Amino acid sequence: MRSLPEADPGLPDIRSPFRYLLWNARMQLPSLLGGIAFATAWWVVQALVPAVLGKGIDALTAKDGGELLTWSAILLGLGLAQAYTGIMRHRLAVYNWLAAAYRTVQVTARQAARLGATLPKRLSTGEVVSVGNSDIAHIGSSMDILLRGTGSIVAIVTVTVILISTSLPLGLMVLFGVPVMAVAVGPLLRPLHRRQKAQRDLTGELSTRSADIVAGLRVLRGIGGEQVFAEHYREESQRVRHAGVAVSRVESLLEGAQIILPGLLVAAVTGVGASFAVGGQITPGELVSFYTYAVFLIGPMRTLTEAADKLTKGHVAARRVVRILSIEPEVSGGDGTSEGGVLRDSYSGVTLQPGTLTAVAAGTPEDAIAIADRLGRYTDGDVTFGSADLATLPVEEVRSRILVADNGARLFTGRLRDELDVRGGASDGEIRQALHAACAEDIVEALPEGLDAQVAEAGREFSGGQQQRLRLARALLADPEVLILVEPTSAVDAHSEARIADRLAKARAGRTTLVCTTSPLVLDRTDHVIYVEDGRAHAEGTHRELLGSSPAYAATVTRGED
């Protein structure tokens, strides 16, 4: 069993959809050429069978036992060759399909990680899901069909040469009949692809709708809007169903045409061939061969139609993949360096001194989020890190040294231990310390398998507060040079919040930490508090100092309570 994907996919050619498909073909050229060779041999072997069968019938008619035995042995050899080449063709076809599909998964997943927050701003959830669900299959099929498509062309040429050398009129009938039938089904491909595109777009919109509903299900239930959105989803799903039926109508016509048109050719060749046999122009064996060839040609002809369909779908799918791969991140870095030090956002005036636990309390949560995004280099801003402009540092370096942990972060499927230890190498003791600081030991203790328990998709088995504490433990275990926490205790009870506030300072001792919060329990345990109003720092000091000197701060953190 070969492992896929095998290696780094490299840099794709995204200048056009065709160039992307060509790049895919080049990346798997040895297996592609091998598959084409076996597919060609497979088709050619089948193309020779009717001729050998006709020779055998003529030998039988002439009562020549030796000749009959010879052609029977050749027919057996062709059967064995067909079995072997068929097996190898299929193996390489599957390999090429998987290689192209997984390579596309690799490059799109890598691009999604590179884009980060830029991706959902530029593409809907449904669009991205559709690439993973259907487009990779079409790209894989475009590589797979190259094998049988190339072999079918060679087979048709081989059969045509045999027929013309045996009977010129019948050979010309087949020679011109094949392309005429191929052209006849062509007009059905355009409406088919148009309807398939419409269905795919509707499916993408429906996926986006379902993702939004699932994400906001608790809120919808709280405001009584669950039924309204369910009705909207039902209406959209019906539109998808109708679009699927429209696609099926054209597909049924295409399938019917691929049976009827070759059938007409078979009938015509058989009728003319029978008249030639009666007139003595061809032998009975040659008549059987002509009939068998007319039937055999249905396969290569259908393969050519299938190739046109799959290559067109692959080109359309590649266009969507290229669209994703062509998106550039909203922020980009340089090649500068920084030894670290003070992290300062010039727009707001927020300054983080090395080794301190600082808090930002904002009059509106959006102001705090904007500051965290600028300090973490998720949006552009005039931010300095030591003596260097943050924008001049490589993005990878910024991500490794400055971690922004907000409540939009997700828990992923897998072992809980691996989910918490994202950088790898942490001991059980270090994991336990992070869980203790985040007040999350009870979550792990309640799991039968402890740290080896499997986390479900998006951590849905945990409550909102439990997820928040696990995310905090993960951020602490990463131990970045600068940690920026956005409302890390908004979903936990007051008792747990107080313990987290006490333990956070110890866990981050000597490291630079910023907490964006308006919780008095957390603010009271920080070294320095910055009050932000209208996006700018208005007051600084300790929590207790600001309570007495800044009425606006006091109103924000006490929520107007006396």
TrEMBL record:
GO molecular function: ABC-type oligopeptide transporter activity; ATP binding; ATP hydrolysis activity
Main location: membrane
Taxonomic placement: Bacteria, Bacillati, Actinomycetota, Actinomycetes, Streptosporangiales
Keyword Membrane part of the UniProt annotation: yes
Cellular compartment(s): Cell membrane
Domain ABC transporter: 322-559
Transmembrane segments: 29-49, 69-87, 145-164, 170-189, 259-282
GO CC terms, sorted: plasma membrane
Naturally occurring in which organism (per UniProt): Nonomuraea muscovyensis
Pfam families, A to Z: ABC_membrane, ABC_tran
Domain (ABC transmembrane type-1): residue spans on this chain: 33-313
Membrane topology category: Multi-pass membrane protein
Protein's recorded name: ABC-type multidrug transport system fused ATPase/permease subunit
Keywords for this protein: Membrane, Transmembrane, Transmembrane helix
